[in-house]
Amino acid sequence: MADKIQLEIVTPERRLLDEPVDMVTVPGLNGELGILPGHTPLISQLKTGVLTYVQDGKNSQLHVSGGFIEVRDDRVSVLAVIAERPEEIDVASARASREKLEKQLSGWSGSEEDLEIARTELARSEVRLQLASSRS
Question: In this structure, which topology does domain 90-134 adopt according to CATH?
Answer without folding.
Answer: 1.20.5
